[in-house]
Write a structure and sequence with these properties.
Chain B: This is Succinate dehydrogenase/fumarate reductase iron-sulfur subunit. The structure holds two protein chains of two kinds. By secondary structure, chain A is mainly α. Chain A contains nine helices and no strands. Chain A has a single domain, classed as 3 helical TM bundles of succinate and fumarate reductases (Up-down Bundle). Chain A starts with 8 loop residues before the first helix and ends in a 5-residue tail after the last helix. In chain B, helix 2 runs antiparallel to helix 6. Classes of the chains: A mainly alpha, B alpha+beta. The interface between A and B is large, with 58 and 62 residues. The complex binds protoporphyrin IX containing FE, iron/sulfur cluster and FE2/S2 (inorganic) cluster.
């Protein structure tokens, strides 16, 4: 491909000389490469996914009334006792989740920057929406990040909750879903979660190298199933409040 | 048939380009797309204008030189190389948009010609095996299992055309790089460099300014040689395996 008309060879050679020396540590090499950052995203995504499944199942307690829900919330604070002190398990989990969210978000931001820079000029003739999934992941991710902040202020700290009573999650949940904006925010966020998991689960399987042609269908079905179950499960709570099943 | 072409014209790497409209008449449906461009260029030369620069060499679908984006699709409406695309795919009166590959790592040299030497540097960093030169080795010295031979052959088909990069919304070279990594890492002959190959080739790919994979699968829809998505998954697996081994 070395046409005599090809310029810039010199620039390229210079660029090669200036190439930063590679970090020798495994962790450094992992974080430095696009595949490594994707791996960080896949693992942190899986951690959050496991949490979401447990969270969704726990939320269904709301259908068994205030006593069930509130004592379940209390039990969460006693996990690991007497080895762990009161609420320690909860705090360990919060630290792990925070680490996962930060790692996921930072990697997503850096990879998105690289990806956009790698394709600076758009085609004049755009026939297909080639980047649908990628764009949904980016916008969905931003929506989820904002939602996580709101959600903590609403039901963990109670700062923006109309009821905001500690130790009484049932009443707080009902209070949130008695407001129109509470419902709108939850619906948007839960649909975003579903779409994110749909592509994310499948992508994570590819990133971690567990995908294969024979498993492709199974992976897609699992991704869609997980997305659907989580979205419906999470949305059943506001729907329950709206329809008066939960009050 | 008569066609209207809108072609990206750019006089050099550092100049501004623009879509320019040309009419071509009496195009035979049996012509290849490149022959159609040849007739346009003959016209242009007779009129004293600068012919459209485009890459081509074998004209039989094996060299990978003839890359261009036709109506928003890398290599046009059929999954083949541009030289193997026939004008019977188009209809009289069609307007056809022709653009160069778009990716930061593939700068435009002139008109439809881009500099794909970044691919050469990826190959140079690991796309080889170490073998003694001189007399040919005894054919049965290194047995290759049939399945490995088939996989290697399937991936060895990559012709380095760059359509995968052109079609990817992230300008990612994962499909190209993985084709070579899987080709050589599957064979016993590629064994000695199995880890360093994947680590170095991925590093070079990142350094050259290609984006990361977001599993949109656009690359596989345009690859004229049918390199599959599982190639990327296998490279991810090889990469993580090599990192764990700490080479
Ligand atoms: C802080 C909020 C979040 C942001 C900013 C975010 C952003 C992103 C982005 C940009 C991607 C890459 C998309 C692509 O490769 O096309 C991604 C992938 C992913 N996300 Fe998230 N996300 C967030 C929250 C979550 C949550 C709550 C989960 C839990 C289910 C999750 C699970 C995943 C998974 C499993 C992947 C796939 C990783 C891979 O392809 O290897 N994300 N995320
Ligand atoms: S993987 Fe396919 S599209 Fe990409 S360079 Fe090789 S032959 Fe071309
Ligand atoms: S000119 Fe060789 S593949 Fe088209």
């Amino acid at each position: 491909m070395a046409l005599a008309t090809r310029p810039e060879q010199r620039d390229k050679q210079q660029r090669e000389k200036q190439r930063p020396t590679r970090p020798v540590s495994t962790a450094g090499r992992l974080w430095r490469s696009t595949i490594g950052k994707k791996t960080v995203m896949a693992v942190s995504g899986a951690v959050m996914l496991l949490y979401l499944i447990a969270h969704m199942v726990g939320n269904l307690k709301v259908f068994f009334g205030p006593d069930d829900m509130n004592s379940y919330a209390h039990w969460l604070r006693t996990i690991g006792e007497p080895v762990l002190h009161h609420e320690w398990f909860l705090w360990i989990m919060r630290v792990a989740l925070l680490a996962a969210v930060i790692a996921h978000g930072v990697a997503a931001y850096q990879l998105s920057r690289l990806d956009i820079a790698a394709r600076p000029v758009k085609y004049v003739h755009q026939r297909r929406r080639t980047s649908y999934a990628t764009r949904t992941m980016r916008w969905g991710g931003i929506i989820l990040a904002l939602f996580i902040v709101w959600h903590i202020l609403d039901l963990t700290t109670g700062t923006v909750n109309p009821n905001g009573e500690h130790g009484r999650p049932y009443e707080n949940i009902v209070a949130t879903f008695d407001t129109w904006y509470g419902n709108v925010i939850y619906f948007v966020a839960m649909i975003a979660v579903g779409l994110h998991i749909r592509h994310g689960f499948y992508g994570a399987a590819q990133t971690l190298g567990v995908g294969s042609p024979t498993r492709d269908r199974a992976l897609k079905v699992t991704a869609n199933g997980l997305a659907l179950i989580l979205t419906i499960g999470f949305l059943s709570v506001p729907i329950g409040v709206m329809t008066g099943v939960v009050e | 048939m008569n066609l209207t072409l809108r072609i990206w014209r750019q006089t050099g790497p550092d100049t501004e380009g623009a879509m320019t409209t040309y009419e071509v008449t009496d195009v035979s449906p049996d012509m290849s797309f490149l022959e159609m461009l040849d007739t346009l260029n003959e016209d242009l030369i007779l009129r004293g204008e600068e012919p459209v620069a485009f890459d081509h060499d074998c004209r039989e679908g094996i060299c990978g030189a003839c890359g261009m984006v036709i109506n928003g699709n890398a290599h046009g409406p059929e999954r083949t190389t541009t030289c193997q695309l026939h004008m019977r795919q188009f209809e009289d009166g069609d307007v056809i948009d022709i653009e160069p590959w778009r990716a930061a790592a593939f700068p435009v040299v002139k008109d439809l010609v881009v500099d794909r030497s970044a691919f050469d540097r990826i190959i140079g960093s690991g796309g080889y095996v170490t073998a003694p030169t001189g007399s040919a080795p005894e054919a049965h010295a290194t047995p290759v299992p049939k399945a490995a031979a088939d996989t290697a052959f399937e991936h060895a088909e990559c012709i380095g055309c760059g359509a995968c990069v052109a079609a990817c919304p992230n300008g990612s070279a994962m499909l190209f790089t993985s084709a070579k990594v899987v080709h050589l890492n599957t064979l016993p002959q590629g064994g000695p460099e199995r880890e360093s190959r994947v680590l170095d080739m991925v590093d070079t790919m990142d350094d050259e300014g290609f984006g990361g994979c977001t599993n949109t699968g656009m690359c596989t829809t345009v690859c004229p040689k049918g390199i599959p998505m599982s190639s990327i998954t296998t490279m991810n697996r090889e990469y993580l395996r090599a990192l764990r081994k700490g080479v």
